[in-house]
Protein 1
Amino acid sequence: MTEANPRLTPDRFNALAAAIEAEVSKAIVGQAEVVRHTLLAIVCNGHALIEGLPGLGKTSLVRAFSDALNLRFARIQFTPDLMPADIVGTDLLEDQPDGRRAFRFQAGPIFANIILADEINRASPKTQSALLEAMQERTVTVLGRTYAVQAPFFVLATQNPIEMEGTYPLPEAQLDRFMFKLNVGFPAPDALARILEATTTDKHTTLTPVADGPALLAMNALARQTPAASAVTQYAATLVAASHPDSPLAPPGVKKYVRYGSSPRGAQAMLLGARALALLGGRFNVAIDDLRALAPAALRHRLLLNFEGQAEGIRTDDLVAELLEAVKA
């Protein structure tokens, strides 16, 4: 846990980040990159969309982070019948001691620090949109009154990429509010063996909170102070500009298969994440390699395929790789 003083040194930043990663890794095996990128999103006060096949530990990953952080946690299971009021809350009419009646706001689960939006694409667009204001503005408006969510505030959402029946794909506006989209791959055989050993016996892994809200806010403040040279910032801007098919910088694959490229939020996600990644590497300035390392997570959900790209099953990760090859430092 951290001291009351919110000021943080780079060494303390690294110690906290290492402690969080180590604690989460007790429960999550074989997903080091996903753990690191989720940590970066949390440190940068951003949101993450976690996608993977059933049984790969997406929900367990979010729960592990909630256990390693001394923060208020809420899990929302998204279903087709879920309503916006089930997320944000509603006004209740109650009898008062003097006999009168008055409305009292009953806060919904969104008023927590870490929100697990499980299977987010199973809810209707109306319900999905209930998250939009909170994710971007950190406020919730109910019946004309605005309430602030408590900082820090993170939405970690999961979705299944193969089971599309009865789902509602997230609209572009909501996808763009996620700092990173992380793909959870199938574990290697040795990692799978460790998972089986840990989950098929009566042994239970208990995680200990190693950081709290003030610590995360201080880590975010320090990350934002990490300097980035103008050439690094220009590279992020060029990379995002080249993701648009009408740009002269766009590579052939982008011109052929992309309908819309990344918004400016893609560049912001790369640069802010790179600032934190540089600190984790013990460096006090951002390198272009930091941007390139985070480009897939920051851009894969921001490249919208056209009909031809969807028909041919083009992967946005391949297009991001082509971008990185085309845009040289």
Protein 2
Amino acid sequence: MRKIRHTPLLILACIFSLAFSDRGVARTWLVTFDGTGDAATVQAAIDSSAAGDTVLVGPGHFTWSNQGGGTEKGFIRFLERKHHITLRSETGPDATILDAEYQNRTIYVQGMNHITVEGFTITGGQAPPFGDYTGGGYFNHISGDTISNCIFLNNEASYGGAIYSCGNGYVTLVENCTFSGNTASVFGGAIALCCNSVSSVIRNCVLHGNSAVQNGGAIAFSLCPLTVEGCVISDNTAGARGGGIAYYNNAAATITRCTIARNEAPDGAGICIYGNSSLAMHRSILAFNWGYWLSIEQGPSAVIGCNDIFGNTAGDELPPGVTDEGFNIFLDPQFCGTPGSGNYYLQSDSPCLPPNHPGGLFCQLVGALPSSCGTTENEKRSWGRIKSGFR
């Protein structure tokens, strides 16, 4: 029988492999409100974590005071070389609160970290002079983060009351989040984005009751593309442009299956675009905004199709510069809720539902939300009357 020779080099390789076989295995760091977890505070767990780790936070109201404060950059901090860390709550945003108590911004991310944050209420953030008063609730720069299932409540900044994201080549994804009561003294009451070569995404979010002193009561961005999908953008205000959305400086927006309603601004209550920017908007509702539903300035271009535009106080006409791709309707979307209720689900006979749309099934669902209530006692519209509003 032939003998197997174990060379010294092979033996050393085996020993090395066994000794380091658990290297690279991700770890979960548990943080509890009473400090009995794997780390005493949320920040201590982040500081101890390595690439791929998860910081899992139990229920509780974690504040600047009871967590030992923060630094000039923020309350919860991810600094350079803390790559691919997940910060996740155990029980969701209603029970797990990160509160900066207006001492600083709530979360700060700097430098190619690609952080994931899931399941928190993020509140009490106030952007400091460090970073030019940007991102009261969440600041990231050159990172490309994923922010999901969070509530952003009552955060403040000059730019991006809740979120400010800026950086080239990295996608920021915000999905299934709610934004309410956030304010900006310049632009982006809830969200402000800039300087990116790839499209960031805001998906399946509710942005309600946010405000900006100048532009973009809910969302403002420049020098970057942005995709907005399946969002309800309602009851936001801006002092100048874009009660719902404002963008400029060669920016580009793709807006699909959104409901943009009851927003207010002197110029573009729903959407304002200017400075050689572009818009592609489909399957969206633009209704009951206090002013022009869409304002176009300084040579932008817009292509729209399969939208419902109705009840805007300055009229529902398509402004100059818009390319009509067809299947746009100008009919009451028939929301379930009363004005101001925030309920933008559709009645069962809404023309925005595929079976009722004058264009048939081509446009699919128009708006962010499906039907959740029956018809009202209002006068029924005949098929001929519905068609009369179809252009």
Protein 3
Amino acid sequence: MRALAGRFVVFDGPDGSGKSTQLREVMNAARRAGVIVCDVREPGGTVVSERIRQILLDASLPEMSVRCELMLYMASRAQLVSERIEPALRRGEFVLADRYVSSTLAYQGTAGGIDWEEVVRVAQAACGDRFPADLTVVFDVDQATAATRLNPLLDRMELKGAAFHERVRQGFLEQARTWPNRYAIIDARQPAETVTQAALDALRRHFAAPAEASR
């Protein structure tokens, strides 16, 4: 766990994947090991970003275009990187984020129809050197299982329907195939304790010291 100091890790996945629960478990494990953790959520995490979050998830705004979503998510992210992520990494803290650019690639990119290259260009402008993250852990779950885990009071993104969310899932899986060295896929259909252990194992494999990795 100490190897996580100064690292930037993202937990991501479809709505209902359980990633937020797993983030809390891993965050607590890191803190028990004496690692200082800066945990952030997207969209949100700062006063400015939380205001943007209210607009993005407002179910009364169904007319919002995908391109508008893209720009608002990136604006929220730019503030989060500047105000919280960048300072925490400079202090040597372990930054653990609930969603990041990977979500925009899946939701507004694969599912929304915006080309990945365009998403990446905007991400580079918004996040600078903090894109990409050191590791993105995707908690993969099929749409039918995910639907049983959602709060009945769905937000604007959750209301987009089964076909949309299946495209989102495929978007995450495609990212992992495209960038295997900085993504890990976890089967999130398993019991929560098993998923937590799998996430910890993924972190250990990715950040193990060379001598430890060779054992």
